[in-house]
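Title: Prediction job returns without error message
Component: structure pipeline
Severity: low
Priority: P3
Assignee: unassigned

Description:
Job completed but the reporter wants confirmation the result is attached to the right record. Sequence as submitted:
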Amino acid sequence: MFDIDKWMEIFSTIRKNKLRTFLTGFSVAWGIFILMILLGSGNGLQNGVRSNFKGSAINALWVWSGQTSIPYKGLNTGRKVTFTDEDNDVVKNVKGIDQISGRYMLGNCNLNFESERGSYSVEGCQPPFQIAEQLQIVEGRFINELDLQMNRKVIVISLDIRDALFKGKNAVGNFVRVSNIPFLVVGVSRKANAFPDRRGIIPITTARRVFNGANRISEYATTTEMVDEAQSKGIEENIRKAIGNKHSFDPSDKSALGSYNTLTEYLRTMKIFFAIKLFVGIIGIFTLFAGIIGVSNIMLIVVKERTKEIGIRKALGASPGSVVRLVMFEAILITSLAGYIGLLAGTGVMEVVNYIVEQSIANKPKTANMDDVTLFLNPTVDFGIAISATILLIIAGAIAGYVPARRAARIKPIEALRDE
């Protein structure tokens, strides 16, 4: 393999046929270039859509109550389903549930600090709500268990509220009035996605005690164990059955009990993108194979042109194996070199596209509580794929040279010397 004379001969042959070698290599380079572009674009689309799930945990499951629309065990439709503290254990005991937070919605309330005021959504919740909603704490802290136990009048406000009411002043440690009731600001939060967040969060026990909520709960925000799609659906169905049994309604009644399973939606979306990437990869590989077939055809022509030369070699004692290696090494060299150039070009183009996307996001004006989400994000090809593509090129080069090499090895010296 490291015979200098053999490699010098290969390079000499390539120099004598520059145009043919260039066109042959270009077909391979173009194939791997297209493969890198397609794979990078698929990654960009997948990353962009995945970023839309940053608004809540990918394993979040939301459950809220409504009115029955299906008769059940002799009971009429139109009955209102109301969650209370008694439902906590019902939901918590469902197998597969990890974290659970009750949520009590107060609706829009007037919030004011000094002379600044505005109408914002306020809701009571428990500490696990931060995990379900993937809330990022910019300043201070989130609601904790001690706040719940002591019915503290504390509040976590969003960045929008902070900027609107405090005008650059420190929010944490100051009081805001919620419907004219003072609450101590203990934290400032922001959502991880691009959706506006204009709300204040207070302990659910305080919300119900101060605003006459008794023991009612508007909805449950839960997180589940990381399972597959079928198991995730099973958890959701078990919650519906448990609550349906508790409140006497048909578990299939979507009006009586609404739900949204983030994990199921996430897994479905990722399956779609896996199929897209697989389809794109197949197209790219077939494009690459088209170039490899071109290399094989060219090498057949090379063998035909060098029939007499190969015959002389064999007459002088060259073994069939040495002839095979000569042809295959030339095919591997052309394929690998051209393919590597295509690999670098494709990867480079996707890096440039990624830079342009990042710059457009960085230069886009944004509100204080919003990240810029795009459907096309980080369209780069990872290192593992690049290594796999390089190995594929070497194998492809060997395949491209094998058929011509076998033909060269079968040439008989007497017939070769007669060849015109």
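Comment from assignee: result matches the submitted record. The chain is about 55% helix and 20% strand.
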